[in-house]
Specification:
Elements: E1 10-21, E2 23-24, H1 30-45, H2 63-68, E3 90-93, E4 101-102, E5 107-115, H3 122-135, E6 143-152, E7 156-160, E8 183-192, E9 195-196, E10 199-200, H4 208-226, H5 235-242, E11 246-254, E12 257-260, E13 265-268, E14 271-279, H6 286-295, E15 308-313
Domain CRISPR-associated protein Cas6 C-terminal: 186-308
Pfam families: CRISPR_Cas6 (PF10040)
Protein name: CRISPR-associated protein Cas6
Amino acid sequence: MNAPDIALPVARYRLEFEVTKDLHLPAYAGSTLRGAWGSALRAICCMTRLPVCDNCPLLDTCPYAAIFETRPHQRRASFLQNFTHVPRPYVIEPPQMGKRSYIPGERFSFHIVLVGRALEHLSLILWAYVKAFRRGVGSGDGTAELLRAIHMGETETIVLEAPGKALKPHDPAIPKTPDLRGTVTLQFHTPLRLQTNGRRATREEHTARKLLTALIRRIALLNAYHGNEPFVLDLKALANQANLITSETQLRWHDWTRYSTRQKKHMALGGVVGTWKLMGDLTPFAPFLHLGQWVHVGKEATFGLGKYHLTLAHS
């Protein structure tokens, strides 16, 4: 079974800031960085000032809605009609768990991954982060100034040297998919949250099929909603092929909670971290496994959960 040709542009950017007022972030800051950016992005883009986007007459042309609140009616692929979840075309990769407080003059950085047509709005996305950190982020509304943005490709390229300056041209293409005919190991750095029928997957349900189909579904939906070149995908055949892949896991549970401003409560969002080894004919899954290192896999990927990197061990 051959692998599909996925022409979905994806790029990772490192945003570097200098703190101007004491900044206090939670242990895992993905949700905080997403929320502050989303509020700033809406404030910049919204022309109607309606309290919610649902009935906005500009919904179909609004960059905020396309990036932050992609709607099911914008579906572009008939073979995905049974999927109601619409993935957002970005992933926030916060600083690694550890240091949480920064004083004026200190620097900190994090990454944002952009997918498909969201890359066309890079200037707007970066400006929203400038506005968010000037207004205040985290406990105590700490502030910071964006110093530069760097494209993390095969080489690092500075694309923005200071707010207000023009973006420098760069190629958002990711490195070529490697040969995955041997054994691969996925090292999960942030909690992976897989589900079965809307509930948390059990230890026994952490199978190669569960992981691979979740990854394929996520990338197929990202391409359908945010890509420009549709690809042919036989989901049933790929799922059957995934049954032939064997796996070994060394995973441990990692608890994580976040406070939902919208729901006014703390939410438990733990998952598993560690290593997951896949063995068998991985050729049909190679582009998905490779691309997943940028777009992540599982629930709450937009916050940065489900982040992994591949290690190859050819047999």
